[in-house]
Known about the structure:
The protein has one helix at residues 2-52. It is rod-shaped. The protein contains 1 helix and no strands. By secondary structure, the protein is an all-alpha fold.
Amino acid sequence: MMAKKLTSGAALVLTVFALSSCGNTIRGVGQDAANTVNATQDAGRTVEGAAVR
Length: 53
C-alpha cells in the first residue's frame, strides 16, 4: 500500500515538472516571435530611411 502511494506521488511530481517545462518553452517561443517582429520592423524603418535620403 505504501509503495502505491509513493509511486503515485512520484508520478504527480514528474507530471508537474513536465508541464512547467512546456509552459516555459511556449513562453520562450512567444518571446522569440515578438523579437522577430520587432527586428523586421526595425529593418523596414532602416530601409525606408535609406530610401528617403
